[in-house]
Amino acid sequence: MTARRLKITVLVDEATVPADDPDFKEPPALPITEYHVIDSLRHLGHAVSALGVMEDVGELVNTLTEHKPDLVFNLTEQFAGDRRLDKNLAGLLELLRLRFTGSTVRAMMLCRDKALCKDLLSRHRIRVPGFVALPTGRPIRVPKKIRYPLVVKPAFEDGSEGISNASLVYNEEALAERAGFVHQRWEQPVIAEEYIEGRELYVTVSGNKRLAVYPPRECFFNRQGDEGPALATYRVKWNKEYREKWNITFGFSELEPGVLRRLERVCRRVYRLLHIRDYGRIDIRLTPAGEIVVLEANPNPDLAYGEDVAESAEKAGLSHEELIDRIVSLAMRRYK
Fold it and tell me: Which of 299, 255, 290 is nearest to 107 (CA)?
């Protein structure tokens, strides 16, 4: 446990702050990450305040500098509704010379830009899906080496935002239609990547100098023939009724020891290459041939109780409070 009682400001997206409970003191009707983290921090004995990030940067700076927290627990995922700007908030904390949890601008930028992330990893011989970046306002050209079907995604979103069953396309006409829809709806470039047949795994990594890899989680699609989703779409991740309809479940992976060792080794390398700090999650497809293909890396995954990171940590022997305490300890150790 953290050696001393800290004054911690939890930085959150303003839209998550309840109007009648700005300090997250009462359990909400639908528990959310912000409440879970703040509640665990309070149970650990810290003096905790919540701060919603407003668009007035000057006011944000003034509040942070006047409050002078020992540590900022950074849970922000966007600024002014734009996920591409989440890295700038980490940069602001660095400029203010405030101690904070999680990754810096470098990791946030590398992980947020899906094409840049995959290009970097592939240059280090980490297998990723073949992909093509499709900027707005340009003709769609797919290199011959890229093979259909392709998964069409917004280039800068996360949490499966913008991914549906229609994202899986089988020809150039369908690609153009879906890419045009994403360009218009999300107002950003598109990445179209080869669909990888196999098991979908989520691997949590924690640490800085020494890394711990927690037991991997898996999305079990339980498809009957060609029926049902083959992707972890937005509805698969966030709609319980939809998962029940298609018998989709989340649980722990059962892997051969050799496969598990290779998986842990790859995830550690990805974590290091992308400069992720304190904690992160690597999303993987494991092919029927046993090949490990990296889909995404998330430097700021959901820390809610019951979600993949907390579930994996608990399987490794850490309660939610102990997981949050580990993140605090890792961050504080960095600033000694």
Answer: 299
